[in-house]
Amino acid sequence: MTKKYLTVSALNNYLKRKVDIDSQLQIIYIKGEISNLKRNINSGHLYFTLKDEKSNISAIMYKGFAKQLTFDLKNGDHVLIEASVSVYAVTGYNQLIVRTIEPDGIGVLYLQFEALKKKLYQEGLFDSKYKKDIPLYPGKIAVLSAYPSAALMDVMQTIKSRFPICRVIIFPIPVQGKDAYLHIVKTLEYVDQLKFNTIILARGGGSLEHLLNFNEETLARTIFDLKTPIITGVGHETDFTICDYVSDFRALTPTAAAIKATPNLLEMQDNLMQLTNLLKTNMKYKIESSKKELIRYENYYLFNNPEKIYGDSAQYLNHIQERLINGMKNRLQTSKTKQKELSLVLSSRNEIFINEYNQHIAAQVNLLKKNMKHKIKYSKTDFMSLVSKLNALSPLHTLERGYAIVSKNDKNISSIDDVSNQDKISILFKDGYVNAIVHKE
Question: What are the residue boundaries of the OB-fold nucleic acid binding domain, all occurrences included (predicted)?
């Protein structure tokens, strides 16, 4: 038997044809890690290796498909791929002909997030030049969060412990669910008109799906257009949303947002005490230095023996000496007065904050009383209306108009067919019962 030898090319071409006609290999879905990524500058094709813990396979993505990628592919990315399998006849290697690539584990939501992020960045919505400064000493803060929620509790406790003289108004919002962002948008637009010093938008952590409403373009543009400075504390430290990029300050957590929004009153008091002590120390030093300077001038030879040098000018020098001493005394007195004025100003400022806080509490109490009074009045009116309607439908009311209720054996009779001749019946009038016997003609 004569042996027929194949060429290498013939074998590779045979394998290629077998693979190309295998329907199971025309469309496959495969996942793995990108490595050895290269882009051909001339053709625009992407070449890379897809690997897992045990194996790898070469892959090519032609220019037309590569241009449709919605994210920046890089080495180390874990991806989901739609492709077909082929054999490269020149080398005999199996390879993937790739059509689509998506990030593994995130999918469409991540791609939408990245696309919107890129769009708003190019429009300049993330630019630092548009970000407003957060007030150092706010009088009123608006907090938008789910009610009740752990995030809201963290924010309120932090503000209370740091700056209790600040007024805080809570505006409950839904933080997840379909179209929750539309309610957040309306609330932000309303709060922006109320002249708050700062707005805090807070939410606890969650997956990309849970934070979906905070990645909506409408909400991002609303935040960008706000006149009131806004701090976002959405999720945990690793969570980033589109709102975080647009806001005036992105805090790592809701608690961090409250810290950014308020000064620490205890630290302010400590700083004031340190400044007071420093002022006292400087004043003491100034006084001691001035005393030493006065003593030096008093012992100065010209002041003690003016007649030996200036003769008749002694009186003039005494006059100069007195002016110098009085001037130093005036400077010391002025410094003491300024110190007292500073203390009064700081004390007055604290009183103003406390008075405003008390006025706010009184106003809320009055509003609650007013609302309760209105609710009781409305409930009384509604109750009387229902009683009137019920009375109109009452059988007793019907009896008063001359009607009667006929019964036999405690059962109401509504038809002549319900009774027979000589049956005993009861007739109820508006003022009592009578018994009767039926007599049919």
Answer: 6-102
- Provide the domain limits for residue 425: 399-437
Angstrom distance (rounded) from CA 392 to CA 198: 57
Listed in sequence order, the residues at least 6 apart from 316 whose beta carbon sits closer than 8 Å to its beta carbon are 310
What is the distance, to the nearest Å, from the Cα of residue 34 to the centroid of all Cα atoms in its chain?
Answer: 36
Highest average pLDDT, of 73-82, 355-364, 396-405, 414-423, comes from 73-82
- CA 33 to CA 39: how far, in whole Å? 17
Q: State the pTM of this model.
A: 0.47
Structure tokens at 1: 């038997």
Contacts of 226 (CB under 8 A, 6+ apart): 188, 192, 199
Does 403 fall in a domain?
A: yes
The sign of the dihedral angle between the CA atoms of 267, 273, 277, 283 is: positive
Phi, psi values for residue 428, rounded to 5°:
-100, 120
C-beta separation of 87 from 93 below 8 A: yes
Question: Last residue of some domain: 105, 139, 165?
Answer: 105
Spatial distance between the Cα atoms of 345 and 358, rounded to a whole number of angstroms: 20
**Contact criterion met (CB below 8 Å) for 16 and 24:** no
Q: Do residues 283 and 305 both lie within one domain?
A: yes
Does residue 255 sit in the same domain as residue 371? no
Which residues, in sequence order, are CB contacts of 416 under 8 Å at separation 6+?
Answer: none
Q: pLDDT digit string (tens) for 225-283?
A: 999 999 999 977 777 899 999 999 999 999 999 999 999 888 888 888 888 888 888 88
255 plus 282 within the same structural domain: no
How many structural domains compose the chain? 4
Phi, psi at 70, each rounded to 5°: -105, 10
Q: Which residue has the tokens 């584990």?
A: 105
As to burial, measured by CB atoms within 10 angstroms (0-12 exposed, 13-18 middle, 19+ buried), residue 142 is buried
CB atoms within 10 A of CB 93: 12
